[in-house]
Amino acid sequence: MRQTRMAGQRMGEAAGGTLGWAHGYHLGRCEAIRLRYKPAAPPCAPVKILYIPQGFHAIDHGIVQALQRLVKELIVGTPRQMLELAKQTRPDIVLVMNGLHVFPADHLQQIDRIRQLGIRTVIWFADDPYFTDDTAVIAPHYDVVITHEQSCVSLYRGLGCREVGYLPLAVDTELFRPRQVEPMYRSDICFIGMGFWNRIAVFDRLARYLAGKRVVLAGGLWDRLAHYKLLRPHIREGWVPIEESVKYYSGAKIVINLHRGFSNEIDNRNSRAIPAQSTNPRTYEIMACGAMQLSDMRADLPALYKPHNEVAVYQSPQELMAKLDYYLTHEEERREIAYNGLRRTLAQHTFLSRIGELLELLGIAKASGVNQ
Questions:
Q1: Is domain 45-170+351-361 classified as CATH 3.40.50.2300?
Q2: For the whole model, what pTM was predicted?
Q3: Per-residue confidence (pLDDT) for residue 20, from 0 to 100
Q4: Tell me: domain 183-348, CATH 3.40.50.2000, correct?
């Protein structure tokens, strides 16, 4: 620990001339932590996988990089060519990410045909429970259903799916990492995400407080705010590319995480009103950038990060405001939570770790072949 601090201080002093000592020191500490948690080369499983991405680069890139290290052979296909590629390459497993939004009308017919070829099919849902009206139709067509949402496991089992597993998402630490940023990306408080109605309600409550702070509020639908004019100078409208998100996270003193509501019929397709209990990808992405995260509580969060030690939590707008005030004036505590969260993320929540867990869930042995 002492060596880590000393390395961070040296790196911070070197960077201090251009970034300011405090920001440079913080980056140095983060880089020293990253150096301590570089993963060893993992054993390779003797299995061929055809991976079909959803089109979420932040997730797909991390999964592809991990699979390339963890399996004997990886083929990356497209939703329209699943069946054709499966016939040509004869993989042991077809792994589909999410199966929504960009998948063609014959998606399920393709999967049925692939199963008829004797190829094991796996889908990993990453948008649960917000599109369960759709995923409930998709899931029974697959041999194995994996979901990042705890509350959806019983749904899929109730639909007759024989193999159902829960697996949280993770982060691509090549894309999401602490960065040096220009002053335009620095803030006291940052939130990136769509203006879903539950978020609108919270930020409208906080509007007058936030208006007096250095704030970044980025994403779409924020014109829904009743206090839109008041917060307009702080709003960065539209889609935020990954590289921009990384800069905003890296430049923020505190990053708010406020999960999407699960019951709104305008923004969701969840007529069963299945509750959302699991953390979103943003949870890991914020941590990987070395930022302190102030998150609303989700049921599985304490199993992933230690509240108050690796992540700060709130359960009401009033508590959120109070904790923003507290951590903005207690820099050392804020920094330590950020460093602890970064350590936990690098140790347990990278896609390399998570895909290793996925292979175990699928019964794939690293040295003795595939158990189907």
A1: yes
A2: 0.91
A3: 63
A4: yes
